[in-house]
Predict the structure.
Amino acid sequence: MVSENIAPAPDNVVSKRYELITLGDELLLGLTANGHLTFIGAQLGRHGVLLQRNVTITDEADAIVAQFRESWARADVVITTGGLGPTCDDRTREAVAAVLGQQLVFEPGIVKVIEERFARHGRKMTDNNLKQAFRFEHGEVLPNANGTAPGLWVEQDGKVLVMLPGPPNELQPMFSEQVVPRLAKLGLLLDREAYVQIRTAGLGESALEMKLQPIFARHGDALSIAFCAHQGQVDVRLSSPSGRLSIAEVESIAAECVKMLGEDFMCYGADSLAKVAGDLLRAQERTLAVAETATGGLLASEFTGICGASKFFAGGCVCYSNESKMQLLDVPECLLEQHGAVSAENAAAMALGAAERLGADYALAITGFAGPCGGTNENPVGTIYIALHTPHGVWSKKLHYPGPRATVNRRAVNAALDWLRRELVRTHSGSTTAVRTGGCT
Amino acid sequence: MVSENIAPAPDNVVSKRYELITLGDELLLGLTANGHLTFIGAQLGRHGVLLQRNVTITDEADAIVAQFRESWARADVVITTGGLGPTCDDRTREAVAAVLGQQLVFEPGIVKVIEERFARHGRKMTDNNLKQAFRFEHGEVLPNANGTAPGLWVEQDGKVLVMLPGPPNELQPMFSEQVVPRLAKLGLLLDREAYVQIRTAGLGESALEMKLQPIFARHGDALSIAFCAHQGQVDVRLSSPSGRLSIAEVESIAAECVKMLGEDFMCYGADSLAKVAGDLLRAQERTLAVAETATGGLLASEFTGICGASKFFAGGCVCYSNESKMQLLDVPECLLEQHGAVSAENAAAMALGAAERLGADYALAITGFAGPCGGTNENPVGTIYIALHTPHGVWSKKLHYPGPRATVNRRAVNAALDWLRRELVRTHSGSTTAVRTGGCT
């Protein structure tokens, strides 16, 4: 669950009304998740704007006209996604032009770019692509480096309209590199981060607030604080919407918080636990291996998004059967017979085996019952054992998470990664003898 | 990309207007994906309804009142999610009651259920939970088996309002088990599947259409056909909105299509490739192991959602380093030196090693450059080698996918699973000598 206390204060930074219109029957039929809302909402939030409304409608021209008219009347900035492609279903341009009272004009420059793009891929442009070469008569074109349909930009009636192509790999760079700077130039969002974000791990929201209260108390109303909790991590966002604190002052308060937090501090910004732990491994020239049962590849896949992960990530094993634990990780058969696969002993043996087999300095292991099936009286569904192997020993702990399988797995992976991160932070600061919690084996 | 041709025809089945209002700043700030749209949109689609609009707004009472008033005026059914919890931010109930002109009344029965729930978890109910015990004076309560806040149901002005709690594990069973049957009873959606869905794999949309055209042509307008393509799979949805074909007739046409499709047919409904391949393995009492580099756990994790997967899935290895390929999978060092890690030879060696190490009958391996970094002149980013080990030999093929990393990985995993599925279908039908494409090693 995400904490409630995350909205910027009403007077926070930019009080312009933004609306996002996402087009597509595939969204309404549940065939595709609405990633545009997630991406654009987060980008606007970082620049001091709380998106006021997102509307998803069908591809029908009538629906587009009605919705755009309504949003255009009440918003300062309207962003649309999708419907700019070459097929006959892509009617957004025409529908919006009608509401704006603008003509669409043919732009030969766009055709040239599309033709060159086709040529680079060794293909010839088909005529339906010419549809994408129309822009609003009083408007501009946002070049698309990753696809054929350019974005469109209109300033009219003291408002801004931004139309973006649907594919995420085209939309996202266009938004970050072109739209954000243009909006910032017009004073419609901040040209910098709206807040300093401190990411913490392993500490609940109220414990975090208690810990930082002495610092916050000194600044009263001048400092705005928002918490955002998500599955084992809590972000603290510091800002001064009233402007009574300078950016440098907010940054200095953040630095104080970081010092106070110690190893509960994970990073500034929004890096993942795997990224932070990976950076620590790289800095210490250490390597990691993983072994998992219930989470079946989820822990390993945390590292696939990180460029150059092969520098520190040796690999991992997904072991469903006892046979595979013995074969891949040298877990002794007698250990599995005596303690079972869901046990602290097996978790530790898996971590040790992964480290030895893969020649890694560190290893993480996860085993347990994530549900919905499985589970015993002693270890009901939601019971997870994690283990950490380090150059100076191996430890394991028992955890229990309520909720559906995906939640249990996500929290187990986060708990394992955070354990490694803390260990690496301690090693880095020279205090490797710190007391650990949990049952040692 | 999802195909455009997926919307039910305008006269399809149920022409009621549904709107979905999803509440929460966390959605607008991009902190949480809007999974409610995906789930509810898909459920309605299955029962013959195309959701007309989804609006996401902030938690502010004014915004809720304005949006609910607008949606209530034009829709036949309005569904809201979120804002029913015990905290002071949860204002949805009051805002909606004001628009409906209804009072909220205290329902002691709800309190009793909440108290029992707390007691079962060994906790005492706090007073703020009493907020959840209010229902509309002219309305009903939808019991919540998985949380404290019940759903609310109102029939008024010839329309229906459904208010659902935000947590997905509470909302989803409530919707499937209570809301769908209630709406069907009122004739607002179908009490059965709106279409027969045939899922295919490995065939493009146009090739599929060509193949099935002779069957479709015989039924003309009476049969409605919709295609939905998603990364290596295409769904064909058959229905008869006009009612000129009976359900039995549509099912019989679907059976004809399945026969015509041969091994391109994957399943009826919406099972995943891993589920279908897993069922075939289970039926043939065979086991599978996997080995992966670039996809780093994605292939293995396809099996984690399947209950009882340990019956047929032995496990997997994620090998980032050459060292790990040698250690876990016995890939010969000389092979890696001669051919490199991204090669048909290594893919085959990894599959063989996984099968032998894990004692599995079948094995899949994936290696390649998914991007954004890596790649060579010979094997640019997007190059993937997949290999399949079977009891009668090992094969590998080279593939190339354009697009961002996540797309390349997803398509590689689907291609590998489909290869296995086809092999198992052939074994099942006794034709194991079918010609295979791709470079053999």
Summary: Residues 178 and 228 of chain A are 28 Å apart (CA to CA). The first strand of chain A starts at residue 18 and ends at 23. The mean pLDDT of chain A is 89. Chain A has three domains: 18-185, 196-268, 273-429.
